[in-house]
């Protein structure tokens, strides 16, 4: 019996491996090798031998059918563990299942119903501000808006200047997640990220102490009160770690998707026109409501196409904790695994002309994402699909509905809209627009 063979690929330079190529442009790095080797190949990046997997079949293997071979905690670079703490994001097995069950009620079902009015109120404040400003950079504005929504609904805090300070701290923290050389010196990107993390933890400790004494209707109050089947609740340390994750995940990715949504609508007037028409028909029946949010099939198609073409996150890391075989290749425990969202979303056999922005891919007639499970994975998939998916989708719909019902915008000249993928996917100059009421 011949010994199982490692996947094809190269290890690159000693120590560095192919890290520099990978960090310079993760998408091209994976795409080129996928074209050369197929859906599984090896490399050496971020100091570890790594297997990269691409395509729905490979993604299903990692996220669903063979999850037991992989660990989240062992997969993400050290920076993530230091900066994002022991949150749900880095937990495995029973610990993850238990905490996920405790957190679910704060982000789904009846809790969401209570969030609609606040999401709308905060959105209206920003619309008024943008109307007065007329010209601004949308990425930074969305970052503030989504952060305000996250801090008010998830933490119950609503102080404007405090919210702006925290939002900036999270920007510093995010920048530290992908530094190749994490030196903890005060003037380095990683040092600034650590300082930001400490200030965030300090703030959250205060908030949690207040909520323990006076619970309100926000997600953290629900978490403080929730108990598992044995009657145990989360410790203060756990609550703080989950709060960091909720705030981080609750605004970074939504900001990215909203920015690309407004950019693509401005670039494609015919798509915007259809989306406006759908909203005007709903508006003629009354104000925006939870019920109306479920009656926007075209806006849903547009958002799915944004998720496909401009996924906020490019992929995910795992640690291989159990040897496995895929397509006849053997991968040993101890390796790192990277699965690529970007490249999976751009496979021509699933999405013809993948570089074209085309919301009709998701129309009832075409449903290109339904040919194979795990071919649209901007929010992950399987048992560990993003816990905030319903919260994020509702928030994006509310903001988009208000924009489409009452406003117009155009892209200002002399700016770069090239895609920058790290730390989160955004147009290079942040999308400067001219904004006016319709």
Automatic annotation (TrEMBL):
InterPro entries associated with the record: Cyt_P450 (IPR001128), Cyt_P450_CS (IPR017972), Cyt_P450_E_grp-IV (IPR002403), Cyt_P450_sf (IPR036396)
- UniProt superkingdom: Bacteria
Q: Which CDD domains match?
A: CYP120A1_CYP26-like
UniProt-listed GO biological process terms: sterol metabolic process
What's this protein's name? Cytochrome P450
Under Pfam families, the record lists: p450
| Membership in a protein family | Belongs to the cytochrome P450 family.
Q: Does the keyword Hydrolase apply?
A: no
Q: Name any cofactors this protein relies on.
A: heme
Recorded source organism is Tolypothrix tenuis PCC 7101
**Binding site residues for heme:** 386
């Amino acid at each position: 019996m011949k010994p199982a063979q490692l996947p094809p690929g190269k290890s690159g330079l000693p120590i560095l491996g192919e890290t520099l190529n990978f960090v310079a442009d993760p998408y091209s790095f994976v795409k080129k090798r996928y074209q050369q080797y197929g859906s599984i190949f090896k490399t050496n990046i971020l100091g570890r031998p790594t297997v990269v997997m691409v395509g729905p079949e490979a993604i299903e293997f990692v996220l669903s059918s063979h999850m037991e071979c992989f660990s989240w905690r062992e997969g993400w670079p050290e920076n993530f563990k230091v900066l994002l703490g022991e949150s749900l994001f880095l937990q495995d097995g029973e610990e993850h299942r238990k905490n996920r069950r405790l957190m679910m009620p704060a982000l789904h079902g009846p809790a969401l119903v209570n969030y609609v009015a606040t999401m709308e109120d905060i959105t209206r404040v920003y619309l008024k501000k943008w109307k007065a400003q007329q010209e601004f950079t949308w990425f930074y504005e969305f970052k503030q808006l989504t952060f305000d929504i996250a801090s008010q609904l998830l933490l119950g805090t609503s102080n404007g200047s405090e919210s702006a300070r925290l939002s900036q701290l999270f920007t510093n923290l995010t920048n530290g997640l992908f530094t190749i050389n994490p030196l903890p010196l005060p003037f380095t990107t990683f040092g600034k990220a650590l300082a930001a993390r400490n200030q965030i933890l300090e703030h959250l400790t205060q908030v949690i102490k207040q909520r323990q004494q006076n619970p309100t209707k926000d997600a953290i109050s629900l978490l403080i009160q929730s108990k598992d089947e044995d009657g145990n609740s989360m410790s203060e340390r756990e609550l703080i770690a989950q709060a960091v994750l909720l705030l981080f995940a609750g605004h970074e990715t939504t900001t990215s998707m909203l920015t690309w949504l407004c950019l693509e609508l401005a670039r494609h007037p015919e798509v915007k026109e259809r989306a406006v028409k759908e909203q005007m028909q709903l508006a003629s029946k009354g104000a925006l409501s939870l019920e109306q949010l479920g009656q926007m099939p075209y806006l849903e198609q547009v958002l799915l196409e944004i998720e496909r073409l401009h996924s906020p996150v490019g992929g995910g890391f795992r640690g291989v904790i159990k040897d496995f075989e895929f397509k006849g290749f053997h991968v040993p425990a101890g390796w790192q695994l990277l699965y690529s969202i970007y490249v999976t979303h751009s496979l021509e056999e699933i999405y013809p002309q993948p570089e074209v922005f085309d919301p009709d891919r998701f129309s009832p007639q075409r449903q290109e994402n339904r040919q194979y499970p795990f071919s649209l994975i901007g929010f992950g998939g399987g048992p560990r699909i993003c816990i905030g998916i319903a919260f994020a989708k509702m928030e994006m719909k509310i903001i988009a509905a208000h924009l489409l019902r009452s406003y117009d915008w155009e892209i200002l000249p002399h700016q770069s809209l090239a895609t920058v993928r790290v730390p989160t996917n955004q147009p290079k100059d942040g999308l400067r627009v001219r904004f006016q009421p319709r």
